[in-house]
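Quick question, first post here. What does this chain look like in 3D?
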Amino acid sequence: MAKKKTLKYIFSLTLVILYLGSQGQKPYKKGLSIGGDLSKLVVPFIDTTRYGWEFSGDYEILKDLFGVVEIGSETYDFSKSLYDYHASGVYTKIGVDYSFGKHLDVLPNDKMFIGLRYAFTTFAHKAENITVKDNVWGDYTGGNIDYNWLVANWLEVGFGMRAHLFNNFFLGWSARVKIMLGVTDDRELAPYGIPGYGNAWNTSAIGINYSLFYKIPLEISFKKKDKQVEGK
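> Answer (accepted):
Ran it through. C-alpha cells below.
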C-alpha cells in the first residue's frame, strides 16, 4: 500500500513539474546547477531517528552528459530498551547523468535522465547506557562503547527528471537503487545506519530525492587552448 501511494505521488508530482516547466521556457543555455534536497527536511517528521542535509551540483561536460557531485550529512540518534545509539557522518557521491529528454520532445531546459553514482562515507558511531541481561549474576547496566570510525561505499543507479519553474529555478526528483559494495566490520558494535545509504544490514536500498535547483549561467571550456608561438 505504501509503495502504491509513493508511486502515485511521484506520478502526480511529475505531471505538476511538466506543467510548470512548460510555462515561460527560454532558449537553452549551459550553466552550473546548484541544488538542495528538500526531502531531507521532511524525513525527521516521518522517521524521528534520523536527520540530515544534502546539496548537489552538476554541469554539462559533454552534450547531454552531466557531471554530478553530491555532498550530504546524516545522523542517527535513538534509544532502545537495552542501549542508546548515535551515528553521524558525511557522505559524497560522484557520477554522471545522461539526459535523454530530447528524444521524447521534452522542452529544452528540462531534463529526463538516467544516472550512475559512486558513493562513499566516513562516519562514527557509539552506544551508551548498555544493559546486559543475566538471570544468574544479575543485569549489568551503564556500559558504553566509545566512538569508532567506519567507512562504507556503494553504487547508485537512478532515474529522474527536472523541470524549469521560473527564471533560473528548477524542480526535480530522482529515484535510485543503491547497491552496497562494502562497510568496515566493527566487532564491538554493528552499525545500524549508514549516512546517505540507509540500514546497514541491507545489501541494497531504494532512495528518493526531491530537489530545488538554481542554475548559474556559466560556460566552462574543457578544450585545451592552442599555444601560440611568438616569433622573435
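The radius of gyration is 22 Å.
The chain has two helices and ten strands.
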